[in-house]
Design brief:
Length: 78
């Protein structure tokens, strides 16, 4: 019987490590001025939201302000 010299039935699997493609990926698309401005506006909105939450949240966490609570709490009213 005739035997072939290939150890695998598909020759392209054995030769895959030697293969180099001549196809190059396309260059990345340039962003327009509108897209850049939109990204900057979105980033500014996120930063402003974080700063605003800090401005409103830090005084609420102040322990001296919490001790000035007016009126009875639920546990004291029983």
């Amino acid at each position: 019987m005739f035997r072939r010299g290939e150890s695998v039935p598909f020759a392209f699997i054995a030769d895959a490590d030697r293969f180099r493609s001549n196809v190059t990926p396309p260059p990345p698309a340039q962003r327009s001025v509108t897209e850049k401005a939109g990204s900057a506006l979105f980033g500014l909105t996120v930063v402003a939201g974080l700063v605003g939450s800090l401005i409103l949240g830090v005084p609420a966490l102040d322990p001296e302000r919490q001790s000035q609570h007016h009126g009875p709490t639920a546990a004291e009213s029983r």
